[in-house]
Amino acid sequence: MRKLIYLAFWFFKVRFLGKQKPLQTVLFISEKCNLKCRHCTVYKKENPYIKTYPQIKEELEYSYRQGSRFVDFEGGEPMIWSDGEYTINHLVRLAKEIGFFSTTVTTNAQLPFASCETDSIWVSLDGMGTYHEEIRGKGTFERLVRNIEESGHPQLSVNMVINNLNYSSVKDCIKFAKENPYIRSISLNFHTPYKGTEHLFVDWDTRRKVIDYIIRMKKEGYPIMNSVSGLRLMKTNNFPKQCWVSNFIMADGTRLAECQGKTASVCDRCGFCMAGEMRSIFTFKPDTILAGMKLRI
User: Fold this and answer.
1) Alpha helices of 17-158 — where are they, by DSSP H?
2) Is 91 inside any structural domain?
3) Predicted structure pTM score
4) Helices 286-296 and 274-282: crossing angle, nearest 10°?
């Protein structure tokens, strides 16, 4: 009930009073990773940023004061983060002690995560079999499937970022999410062409076609987290965005009041489908509101 009341007041303030308060924090705790994915440039750094526990504590407290009540721990790879005796589970507990309603950890699932205490797990899936391995490396798909099956986490979903290498595998990934008893749902996004990854951008005609069959599969009952209203907006990406709903704290400590895409000048080619979801909520689309409630309540 406390969560529902907070969400109602938050929506009233931002929608009708014009306030811009974050609801979610995306907190990058490290640049250190155990993979070298083709869409990522972080692994090329010789001295990746790795935050300390006190630093993360201060950033969580800051985000909470700003209004955020949900936090997503990201990397690098969060499951390999540590600071002395502290691990990802200590960060999850810390966030709850501060007052966050729930925590999420996004992982590449190359290590077992059955012991992870987070409320929700997001596993990054970039295609079935060879599609996934072309992007993330040999053996990564098999390990991903095994660790999903062994996790037993009740709130496990997969996230696919659709790019120029894997868009042909979208249908199979959606079917995989439905048929795998350990997966709750699948979220679908498109690659945003940050510097050095422009070649992975999906052209607009292909993007529209992919979204059309995602919508068809959604209507057929496949467990797709995206709403139909949100997906339709992403066909053109031509709509006002409320990217300040999430604040971002980067691995180097930089604090952004909204997605880093703005500073990188890639908003016109944004593939983060949450932008469409938030716009649909702000325009009172029932299917998007229902999808948001399933995710957050």
Assistant:
1) 53-66, 88-98, 130-136, 140-151
2) yes
3) 0.94
4) 120
- 122: domain CATH number? 3.20.20.70
pLDDT tens for each residue of 48-74: 999 999 999 999 999 999 999 999 999
Beta bridge partners of 246: 24
d(C-alpha 234, C-alpha 187), whole Å: 14
30 and 67 Cβ atoms separated by less than 8 Å:
no
Q: Is residue 33 part of a domain?
A: yes
Instruction: Locate 56 and state its tokens.
Output: 């993360």
Return the pLDDT at 46: 81
9 in any annotated domain:
no
Residue written as tokens 């540590």? 82
Tell me how far CA of residue 238 lies from CA of 183, 190, 223, 230, in angstroms. Answer: 32, 15, 26, 12
Task: Find the domain containing 65 and state its range.
Answer: 21-296
233: left (phi over 0), alpha (psi -120 to 50) or beta: alpha
**Number of domains into which the chain is organized:** 1
CA distance 180 to 253: 37
Q: Is 224 helix (H, G, I), strand (E, B) or coil?
A: strand
Write out the two tokens for 105. 């950890």
- Report the 10 Å Cβ neighbour count for 130: 12
Distance, in Å, from the CA atom of 277 to the CA atom of 295, rounded to the nearest integer, reads 12
